[in-house]
Write a structure and sequence with these properties.
201 residues; alpha+beta; two-stranded antiparallel ribbon
C-alpha cells in the first residue's frame, strides 16, 4: 500500500485498487432503484473482448426475454458498440438523453432485470452477464503497465445503495465478494480483505 494526496492505493500484484473500494459502504437496494443502472447513461456497459463473443454465442438463449426495442437495436447495431472513448460496450436502445436502456434489459412493469442473468439463474445459459455489471460500482481500467486499476464509480442513482451499505455496515468489497472472488481468485480477495482490515482498523 502507498499513501498520496489522492488517498491510499492498494497494490495486489500488478493491480492498483482505490481505498474507496474497501472504505466506502455499499449494498444494492433494488426495491428502491428497480434496476435503474441498466437504463441510465450515455452508453452501454463496458465489455471485455471475450464477452462480445459470448453475447453472440448465447444470444438465442436469452433474446426472447428482451424488449422488442432491445432486439431491434441488436439487429440494427450488432451485439456490441464502441463508445466515444473507444471502449467496447453493450448495445443500447434509443431513448431520451442520459436514458438509453441496455438492449439486453428485461422489463417487468417498473422493474428492470438482465435477460442474460435471468437465463443464467434458470440454468439455461452458461454466460452470466458482463463482468462490469457484476462488479458495479467498481469500474476497472487497464493500466499502461498491463495491470488493472480498480476505482469506485459514484452515481446519484446509487445513493440509496450507499446509504443502505452504511446502515448495514457493508463495505463495497464485501458486497462484491462473490464476483471479486470468481473473477480474480480467492488469493486476490484475501489480500484485499487483509488490506481493508489494516486501513479500516
Amino acid at each position: 500500500m502507498s499513501d498520496n494526496r489522492f488517498g491510499t492505493i492498494i497494490q495486489i500484484g500488478d493491480d492498483l485498487i482505490s481505498e474507496e473500494v474497501v472504505t466506502e459502504y455499499f449494498a444494492c437496494d433494488y426495491p428502491r432503484c428497480k434496476g435503474i443502472c441498466c437504463v441510465l447513461g450515455d452508453s452501454g456497459a463496458p465489455l471485455e473482448e471475450s464477452e462480445t463473443e459470448q453475447l453472440e454465442r448465447h444470444y438465442e438463449e436469452f433474446c426472447d426475454l428482451m424488449s422488442p426495442e432491445g432486439r431491434k437495436a441488436v439487429d440494427d447495431k450488432g451485439f456490441f458498440c464502441v463508445d466515444v472513448e473507444g471502449d467496447l460496450v453493450t448495445t443500447t436502445s434509443p431513448g431520451p438523453p442520459r436514458r438509453e436502456p441496455c438492449a439486453y434489459c428485461l422489463f417487468e412493469g417498473e422493474n428492470v432485470f438482465c435477460s442474460i442473468e435471468r437465463r443464467w439463474f434458470e440454468k439455461k445459459c452458461s454466460f452470466r452477464k458482463p463482468a462490469s455489471c457484476w462488479l458495479y460500482p467498481i469500474r476497472i481500467k487497464k493500466s499502461r503497465s498491463g495491470g488493472r486499476l480498480f476505482n469506485l464509480d459514484r452515481q446519484a442513482m446509487c445513493r440509496d445503495a450507499f446509504e443502505k451499505g452504511r446502515r448495514e455496515g457493508t463495505r463495497v468489497y464485501q458486497f462484491l465478494k462473490e464476483p471479486l472472488t470468481q473473477l480474480f481468485g480467492e488469493e486476490f480477495y484475501s489480500a484485499l480483505d487483509s488490506a481493508a482490515k489494516h486501513i479500516n482498523g
